[in-house]
């Protein structure tokens, strides 16, 4: 196991596509009985270089899966599993960034994604 996961305080990382295109996280939402909405990002076991940081990562959809994931009539789990795929781990990179990202009052600006 790499020492990145065990650092104290925890070291934040910037995760992105190598080509800098947007990341599309798979998420779900549902209306609660009180009318409010609940939502969650789906995770999977970490893949590629993300395993250096954590055991799990968001399910990042590949471009071809977006239309299927967002189709309102697609609800069968097995059909979804056959049509929706995660982004190839080789297209993802990350680097450590300043711990200021954890402090919204102090941590603002594009410089926060610069390598620490």
Name of the CATH homologous superfamily: SOS response associated peptidase-like
Could you report the average pLDDT, rounded to the nearest whole number? 87
CATH class: Alpha Beta
What CATH calls the topology is: hypothetical protein yedk fold
Examine the secondary-structure arrangement and name the CATH architecture: Alpha-Beta Complex
**C-alpha-based Rg, rounded:** 17 Å
The largest beta-sheet arranges its strands as 1-6
Largest sheet: 2 strands, antiparallel
**Structure classification:** alpha+beta
Query: How many strand segments?
Result: 6
Poorly predicted runs are: none
The number of helical runs is 2
Strand content: 15-25%
Shape: globular
Topology of this protein?
Blueprint: E1 13-17, E2 27-31, E3 37-41, E4 43-45, E5 56-58, H1 66-70, H2 77-83, E6 92-96
Antiparallel strand pairs: 1-6, 2-3, 4-5
Tell me what you see in this structure.
By secondary structure, the protein is an alpha+beta fold. It has one domain: SOS response associated peptidase-like (hypothetical protein yedk fold, Alpha-Beta Complex). 10% of the residues lie in helices and 22% in strands. The chain has two helices and six strands. It has helices spanning 66-70, 77-83; strands spanning 13-17, 27-31, 37-41, 43-45, 56-58, 92-96. Strands 1-6 form a two-stranded antiparallel sheet. The chain is globular, with a radius of gyration of 17 Å. It starts with 12 loop residues before the first strand and ends in a 20-residue tail after the last strand.
């Amino acid at each position: 196991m790499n020492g990145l996961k065990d650092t104290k305080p925890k070291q934040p990382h910037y995760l992105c596509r190598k080509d800098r295109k947007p990341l599309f996280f798979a998420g779900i939402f549902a209306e609660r009985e009180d009318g409010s909405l609940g939502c969650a990002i789906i995770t999977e076991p970490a893949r590629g270089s993300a395993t250096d940081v954590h055991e799990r990562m968001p399910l990042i959809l590949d471009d071809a899966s977006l239309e299927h994931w967002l189709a309102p009539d697609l609800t069968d789990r097995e059909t979804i599993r056959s049509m929706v795929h995660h982004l190839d781990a080789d297209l993802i990179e990350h680097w450590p960034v300043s711990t200021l990202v954890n402090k919204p009052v102090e941590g603002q600006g594009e410089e926060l994604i610069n390598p620490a």
